[in-house]
Write a structure and sequence with these properties.
The chain contains 7 helices and no strands. The chain is mainly alpha-helical and 163 residues long. The chain folds into 2 domains: 69 residues, Alpha Horseshoe (Serine Threonine Protein Phosphatase 5, Tetratricopeptide repeat); 60 residues, no CATH class.
């Protein structure tokens, strides 16, 4: 026959199992779901910081979001906005390149990249970025705007030369 445990022994094992299960669930609640959603919380706070023009705070929050989820391409895009507002154009372009590396079909990142290159007076790079945006953009209204930007860059390049 098998080993049978008396009632006191069975009660202790049952209590020990319950304690282990309770500890497991407490740890899961404290560590698991909270950290999995932190990147979205940081992202939403970063969006608010952008709206109220707190560029450094937005950068800090989008960076935290990206630490928790490095493939969250929209956070790169929005951090690029904050960098560009601070005049840190090279950092902005680096983030936009990362965003399109993670999502090559993201026209908004190419469009912003074009604007940042245009601010830097790098019209050839701006033209290329706008063309990439146009190739990926499906919405009619943004397509019209991008086409205008392309025409403007072509005109500027004719006047100033490629570099």
């Amino acid at each position: 026959m098998g080993l049978t445990l008396g009632n006191p022994m069975r009660a202790r094992l049952s209590t020990a199992r319950h304690i282990v299960i309770i500890v497991f669930f407490i740890c899961a609640l404290v560590v698991g779901p909270v950290s999995a959603e932190d990147y979205l919380d940081y992202y939403e706070q970063g969006e608010f910081a952008l709206r109220v023009e707190k560029w450094d705070r937005a950068i800090e929050l989008f960076t935290k979001s990206l630490v928790d989820n490095p493939s969250f391409f929209v956070a790169y895009h929005n951090r690029a906005i904050a960098y560009s507002k601070k005049g840190e154009y090279d950092k902005s372009i680096d983030d936009l390149k990362k965003a399109v590396q993670l999502n090559p079909d993201y026209p908004d990142a190419y469009g912003l990249m074009g604007l940042v290159y245009e601010i830097k007076k790098d019209y050839a790079s701006a033209l290329n970025a706008y063309k990439e945006a146009l190739n990926r953009e499906k919405r009619p209204a943004p397509r019209k705007i991008i086409q205008k930007y392309i025409q403007d860059m072509e005109t500027k390049l004719k006047k100033t030369g490629p570099g």
